[in-house]
Structure formats: C-alpha cells, structure tokens
Specification:
The structure holds two protein chains of two kinds. By secondary structure, chain A is mainly alpha-helical. Chain A is built from 21 helices and two strands. Chain A has helices at residues 2-15, 18-36, 42-49, 58-83, 92-142, 145-162, 167-181, 207-225, 244-266, 274-286, 299-314, 316-322, 328-339, 347-351, 353-385, 389-408, 411-429, 434-457, 464-467, 469-486, 488-499; strands spanning 184-185, 192-193. In chain A, strands 1-2 form a two-stranded antiparallel sheet. By secondary structure, chain B is mainly α. Chain B folds into two domains: 1-86, no CATH class; 89-210, no CATH class. The chains are: A mainly alpha, B mainly alpha.
Chain lengths: 500, 222
C-alpha cells in the first residue's frame, strides 16, 4: 500500500509540472477538435496527430498522446450526442439515448453527465492501473514465449467473439491481419517475404499507414457513399450541469458502467469495445421501465459513457505491463513509444519509473482537463459540426496526407494510405469488419517471434502449448469462448446486443 | 478488381447464389491466399524446430483460403446480404488527391521520370481540390478558399512551429524573395500571401452565392 501511494505521488510530481500540464491540455484540446469531426475516430485522430509529438521528450510525448486519445474519445461522444453520428464503435450506444436527449433540448445535460461519468470512471481506472501495475508486471516476468503466444491467441479469439457480424468473416480478417504482418524481411533469416521486390516494403507495412488507410481514408469513402442528412441538433443545448434528479438517476449507472468497463478493458483483444454495449444492456435490464431507453433515458448515456472511458483507460494495462497492445489505439502508442526509444513491456516500469507513473498520473489530469475544457467549449463544437461534410473531408484528407508523410518522410507512405483506404472500403462493402484485421496485424509479429522461440525451446514440439499449465489454461479459455460464441442460442443474444 | 459491380442489381438474388456479398468476399479471400502462396513459393518452410521464413505465411495463407472457401460454400446454403452498389466517384477522386499530394510533396522518381518537388505549398491545395471533387456537391470556389486558408495554417503549424522535416515550398521560390531572408521568413511571408489571397477570393466571389444554383446547403449532408 505504501508503494501504491509513493508511486502515485512520484507520478503526480511528473504530471503536474507546468510543461506536462500544458501538453496534457493541448493534447486534450486538439484531440477533441479532431475527434469531434464526424467520421474521424480516435485511431485516425492519433495517427494524424502522431507527428506533432515528435519534438517532445518521451514522457511529454506520451502524456500528450494520451491526452489526444481521451480527447478524441470524448469528441466522439459529443458528435454522437449532437449529430447522431458515432465516430467509432464505442460511441454507437451513446448516440441512442444521447441524441434523443439532445432532441428534447437536454443536449447540455447529456454532455454534462457524459463528461462527469467519464471523469469518475477515469479516476477509478487510474487507481486500478496504479494498483494492478506492479503485480501484473511481476506476473509478466514469469511469462515465457509459450505463455505469451497463448495469451495472444486468446486475445485474438476475444476479438473474434467481440466482432460484429459473421464469426467466420472475423476469423478470416484476423488471419489476413496476421498474414499482412509477415510481409517484409524475416527477422531470423533476413529473407524478404512477399515484398514484390519493393524496397519500401522490406521493413514491412507501417502500422500507422495501415491504420490511417483503413480507418481514415476508407471512412471518408464510405461517408461519401451514404448521403444521409446530418441532423445537428437545432434545439438549445440547455444547461450543462445535471440537476439533483439527474444525478440521482445516473449515479448507479455510472458506478456499474465504470466497473464493467474497467474489467473488460483489461482483457487482451479489445475488450473495451464491449464495455458500452454491456453497460447499456445491463441498464436496460435493471430499469423499472425499459421502454424509456432509446427515448432519451439519462441512464443510457451515463452507464455506457462511463464504461467507455474506464475501458479506454484500463486497456493501457496489457500494454504497459505485458507489452501486448490490446487494440489499434494501443498499437499506435507502441509506435509512438518505439519512436522515442522505449520498448513497451514489463521493463518500462522498472527502467523508466518516472515515465510509467507520470503517464498514469497524467491520465487523471487529462480526464480533469476534459471536464474543464469541454463543457465551456460545447458551443464551439456545435459550430464545427455545422460545417458541411463536403468541406470537412478535403481538410481531413490533407491532414491525413501531411500527418503520414511527416512520420517517415516517404511519399510511398502517402500512396499506401490511398491503397489501404481502397482496401478498407472494399472490406466494408463485402461485409468484413476491419478492426479484427488491424488487431491481427498488431499482434502478428509478436506472435511469430514468440511462436518461434517457444518451438525452439521445446525442440519443435507443439505439445509445449498444452503441457505448460498457464499456456494450457489460456488456450482452454480461448477454446471455450469460441465454442460458446458458436452456440446458436448465444449467437442470437450476441447479435441482439450489437443491433441495439 | 474483377469483383467490382456497378449499377443497380436485382434486390432478390436469383439462382443458386443466396448471399452475393459472401461470394465476392470469399473470392477475394481465395485470391489473396493464392497470391500469398505464389509469393512465398521460393521461400524455405523449415521445420517446427527451426521455422523458415515461409512457415507462417504459407500456413496462414492456407487458412485464409479455407475461410474463403467456407464463405463461398455458405453463400450457396444460407441467405445473406446483397452486394451494395459501388460509387466510383468517391474512391477515384480521394485517391487522386492522395496521389497528387504524394507525387508533388517532394521529387519522386518513377522510371525515368522525376516529378518536381513542390512542397506543401502546392501539394496541399492539390489534395484538397482534387479530393474535394469526390462529392457531387463540390464547389470550386469553396475548395479554393479552403485550400488557400488551410495550407498556410499547416505551413506555419508543421513547418514553423513544429519544425517537422516536411518540404514546405519549392526551392525556386526563395529566389523571389530578398536574398537575406531566412527559410522561415520566406515561409511566413508565403503563408501571409496565401491568407490574403484567400480573403481576396472570398470577397471577390461573394456575389456568386446569390446565384440560383448556389443555395447554401446547411442541412449538412454527409
């Protein structure tokens, strides 16, 4: 316990310096600014803004990036409430009741409770990370390559189970993602694989390029297809602070949402995505009058928004302690860390304690900033949302080009976001979900490395994965999950959760 | 792209195919698997004890191919979604804008031909204007004003404030300014000129707005 407080105070010592406070503020502000734009989710936002952190010291850069992440997340909720266009999967649920509240002239209250719920969830999640950081890091140190491989398999199975739509398609996407990650020079033998002899493919496909293509450019193409009217709330925003009644109705959903979100967020394989859905379903089940949901129930905003933010934050845990990015956003964080010479994993905490705890403390600071800067700025976001898409998307396009060019100074990277944009657009048209593919790509290289090592240690025997107890346990969980997901009755329930 | 389908399709698929979207998806997966197998044909697979470079890609490709086949098979058994209509305008112009940016941002050699490196000053507006035509609602005036105001903003932000190594303007441009001006000075002056140009275009073409075609569409279609 003493450790817990001394670590946190070390962290706050770092996070509360004037420079880092400024960076957290700037990150939150810019993140929200870009995240508010319809059709731009956190992944595209971070990929776009990655270069602006290059000139900073590692701690400052990560603090700013974390700020950008929360800002983008919160910006997405703002768009969901005000325009009914969820920027990404996790704010889909917020749009259901949030937008209805906005239409009833209670947009302010919806935004307010979203911000307050998020802040509370963020505070709890920060404490959870601080508490779990040390024990999980110790656990990670006893993990060998065999266990790492099995853990990642389990993560990918999670991603399959959590993906929307057909399970077969999700599996195919994961496999394609892992396959894409094998493009480039083989680390062990130095032979080039599937590079078409092109020199810029020798290092493999850059993750930021793939992510920006699939989530930035493809999204633009998809939005251009759908000529749906953007229905920006015309009613007054109303007061921002929820009143006593609102608080009474929403404090329990906030607590439950935080608990659900924080727990699911820790799971490898993008568990955070499930948080808002689970929280919404739970609130609806617990409500005395479920028919209110979908018509502007404040619980339908408070629960999922808290779950969303708690999950967004606890998803840092697998990255910081095990070095395994659980989702695409965290994979971008890996990219950012590597640029600054930090290899994510259990050793970060021991080698770089100021960075580790400073970042954790800055998460809380970032959440506080969001609460402070967003509520007064709502008017500005509304105005931004009224800019027609025909003017927004060329601007987004140019920012994408400049952002991706600045990372490696390679014109081929810019061309590749166009190529992957087209690929992503085709995937959407064929009913494939791109998120599992990105996760497969993220974990692919780590998996191959660990698989090789594990097999060398076991002298080529695949049985090692079921002989070692921890690994066997992880694989068993994966198999059970997959079987459960394939059971017809569960599948129906799963479809219901996602269509709500 | 043999699977591109343009134009309207019958709503209810006739014939043995019950899920056209899955047929297309399955074919793409099988084609991808075949491509990967072909590309790794010369690589050594190794043994489990000492995996070669082709081990993982090859087995993954086989697995991708099998999922593709399964998807194809199910398409004849289970009803599924129809293929959506493809709109080529969006992708063509968006990719056109991206390519224009990539080719002009700095000298790029293609075969025997090298494109001139024009920097952000030209690459940015090109991306905005070409990309902007991806929607049928595009209006040249708005796109010109947008590019004249966003480009200087990005030039100052990325080139001046953040010092990123991104080419901002062609070298020839420095010749137009007094020789004792620094790069930053030229950058700021150029940015200022662009902003002034944006204001001039905005004011000079204001009347266009009153034209019958140009009813400002603030319903914000997306």
């Amino acid at each position: 316990m003493g450790d817990f407080f001394s670590n946190l105070s070390l962290g706050f010592g770092v996070a509360l310096t004037l420079q880092n406070l400024g960076l957290a503020f700037l990150g939150c502000l810019v993140g929200t600014l870009i995240g508010v734009l319809p059709g731009v989710g956190p992944i595209a936002t971070i990929a776009m803004l990655l270069p602006i952190t290059f000139g900073l010291d590692p701690t400052g850069a990560l603090i700013m990036l974390a700020g950008i992440y929360y800002g983008a997340q919160y910006g997405g909720s703002t768009t969901a409430i005000l325009v009914n266009i969820p920027g990404e999967a996790t704010s889909v649920v917020t749009a259901l009741d949030g937008h209805q509240m906005a239409r009833q002239g209670r947009a302010g209250v919806a935004l307010g409770i979203a911000a307050i719920g998020s802040f509370f969830a963020g505070t709890v999640a920060t404490l959870v990370i601080a508490a779990l950081g040390t024990p999980l890091t110790k656990l990670a140190l006893i993990f060998g390559p065999t266990e790492y491989f099995s853990l990642m398999v389990m993560g990918l199975v999670f991603a399959v189970v959590l993906a929307r739509g057909s399970i077969l398609k999700a599996i195919a996407m994961i496999l394609v993602g892992v396959l894409l990650s094998t493009v480039g020079t083989d680390l062990e033998t130095g032979e080039e694989r599937m590079t078409f002899g092109l020199p810029f493919l020798a290092d493999g496909i850059d993750f930021a390029v793939l992510a920006m293509g699939i989530f930035g450019i493809a999204e633009i193409m998809r939005n251009l297809d759908h000529t749906e009217t953007r229905d920006v709330v015309r009613q007054a925003i109303g007061r921002l602070l929820p009143n006593r009644d609102d608080f009474r109705q929403s404090y329990k959903p906030v607590l439950r949402g935080t608990l659900i979100g924080a727990t699911l967020g820790i799971l490898p394989g993008n568990g955070a995505v499930l948080g808002p859905f689970a929280a919404y379903t739970l609130e609806k089940k617990l409500a005395k009058d479920p028919s209110r949901f979908g018509r502007g129930a404040i619980e339908g905003v408070a629960g999922p928004e808290s779950a969303n933010n708690a999950g967004a934050q606890t998803s840092f845990i697998p990255l910081l302690t095990l070095g395994i990015p659980p989702n695409a956003v965290m994979a971008l964080m890996v990219g950012a860390m590597t640029i600054h010479g930090i290899i994510p994993g259990p050793q970060v905490m021991t080698k770089n304690p100021t960075l580790f705890w400073g970042m954790i403390a800055s998460m809380w600071v970032g959440n506080l900033m969001l609460l402070i800067i967003n509520l007064p700025l709502v008017g500005m976001w509304v105005r931004l949302l009224k800019v027609p898409y025909r003017l927004l998307f060329p601007a987004i396009l140019m920012f994408c080009c400049i952002g991706i060019y600045s990372i490696n100074s390679l014109p081929t990277d810019v061309m590749f976001i166009g190529f992957f944009g087209l690929v992503g657009y085709m995937l959407i048209k064929f009913g494939f979900e791109p998120a599992p593919m990105l996760l497969g790509f993220v974990l692919g290289r780590l998996m191959e490395e660990n698989l090789r090592r594990a097999l060398i240690i076991s002298r080529g025997s695949l049985e090692t994965f079921i002989e070692r107890p921890v690994s066997a346990g992880l694989l068993a969980v994966a198999v059970i999950l997959l079987v459960i997901a394939l059971l017809p009755s569960i599948r129906k329930g799963r479809d219901e959760v996602f269509t709500e | 792209m043999s699977t591109l389908h343009e134009g309207p399709r019958p709503a209810e698929p006739g014939g043995p195919v019950r899920a056209p979207q899955n047929v297309a998806g399955g074919l793409v997966l099988v084609a991808l698997a075949a491509l990967a197998l072909w590309l790794t044909r010369d690589l050594d697979q190794g043994t489990l004890n000492a995996m070669g470079p082709a081990m993982l890609p090859r087995w993954l490709a086989i697995a991708v191919g099998l999922s593709g086949l399964a998807l194809l098979a199910f398409a004849f058994i289970k009803h599924g979604e129809a293929l959506e209509r493809w709109n080529l305008r969006g992708p063509v112009f968006v990719i056109g804008g991206i390519l224009a940016f990539a080719l002009t941002i700095r000298p790029f050699a293609m075969g025997g031909f090298t494109t001139p490196g024009l920097g952000m000053l030209f690459a940015g507006p090109l991306a905005i204007i070409i990309g902007g035509y991806a929607t049928p609602e595009a209006r040249l005036r708005d796109l010109v004003i947008l590019s004249l105001s966003l480009t200087p903003f990005c030039m100052v932000l990325f080139g001046d404030l953040l010092n990123l190594p991104i080419p901002v303007f062609p070298q020839a441009l420095t010749g137009l300014f007094p020789p004792d001006w620094s790069q930053k000075g030229v950058l700021r002056a150029t940015a200022a000129i662009l902003v002034v140009a944006a204001v001039i275009v905005f004011l000079a073409t204001r009347r266009w707005r009153r034209g019958p075609i140009d009813v400002a569409d603030h319903s914000g279609r997306i």
